[in-house]
Amino acid sequence: MNNNDKIKEMVKQKYNEIALQNSDINASSCCGSGSCSTEVYNIMNEEYENLDGYIPEADLKLGCGLPTEFAKIKKGDTVVDLGSGAGNDCFVARHETGESGMVIGVDFTETMVEKARSNAEKLKFSNVEFRLGDIENIPVADNTADVVVSNCVMNLVPDKPKAFSEVFRILKAGGHFSISDIVLTGDLPEKIKNTAEMYVGCVASAIQKSDYLQIIKEAGFKNITLQKEKPIIVPNDILKIYLTDEEITVYNSNPDIIFSVTIYAEK
Fold it and tell me: Measured in Å, how far apart are the chain's first and last C-alpha atoms?
């Protein structure tokens, strides 16, 4: 098993665990990664309550943005959500597409897909579908989607250029994406970068913002736009799990390093 396969297996195991938990437990973790904080808050999660189509039961508190809010979804659109979890963004997207549209959620964790399908069945949504698959090889035909969304998932994919080339492939000509993710504008301490829990917690796996935008450009996208950006402040009770008091002081003396961004681009 190569390193990328090991990373995928680690992420899959952790998200299988999360799928079996309730959202209150996930909300007390760092991007849902578990054991990141003793406090009941999530340092990255955005509030969905004001978005039409929001289904609380499908919100596992795993996101770092609100991509569906910025995705410019129109009635009748076909929308693909990458890393769809329990269906949260899919159900918001479904409200925007209306019954004439189609929403396809893709996740590589079987338990998540089962949970999402169960939620859709309870809601009697006939135009929301969930597929088991890898974002590096998306199980969607070429030129299918009008819009692609994703929420704090692309940073977990080992081969990001391949993932964005797949997004380009499944989008129709003139289609676009709105993706929320975690990026860096400085260097993380090695102790954080080398920690599995912080990897699946969306921090240690993040890459430099400039590199992230370059990958999108090289995939062929145009009109790349930063729709939203905010710094992520990691509380000291989380940092203490990984760093000494002296290392925390050094880390906190730096300008903001970790950012949540929502990026738009067109094919």
Answer: 34
- Cα 116 to its chain centre, rounded Å, is 16
Which domains are delineated in the chain?
Answer: 3-266 (3.40.50.150)
pLDDT at position 140 over 60: yes
| Beta-carbon contacts of residue 135 (< 8 Å; ≥ 6 apart) | 82, 83, 106, 108, 150, 153, 154, 157, 163, 166
* Whole-angstrom distance, CA of residue 13 vs CA of residue 22: 16
Cα 65 versus chain centre, distance = 8
* Per-position DSSP letters for 151-196, written without gaps between them: ES-GGG-S-HHHHHHHHHHHEEEEEEEEEEEEEESSPPPHHHHT-H
Given pLDDT bands bounded at 50, 70 and 90, which one contains residue 28? Answer: very low
Q: How far apart are CA 97 and CA 79, in angstroms?
A: 8
Residue 192 CA to residue 189 CA, distance in Å, equals 6
> Exposed, middle or buried by CB within 10 Å (0-12, 13-18, 19+), for 193?
middle
Helix (H) or strand (E) holding 120: helix 110-123
Query: CA 195, 241, 258 angle in degrees (round to 5)?
Result: 65
Instruction: Write the pLDDT tens digit of every residue in 178-225.
Output: 999 989 998 887 777 766 566 555 676 789 999 999 999 999 999 999
How far apart, in whole angstroms, are the C-alpha atoms of residue 174 and residue 168? 10
153 touches 177 (CB < 8 A)? no
DSSP 8-65: HHHHHHHHHHHHTS-HHHHHTSSTT-SSS-SSS--SSPPP-TTSTT--GGG--S--SS
Q: How far is CA 25 from the centre of its chain?
A: 18
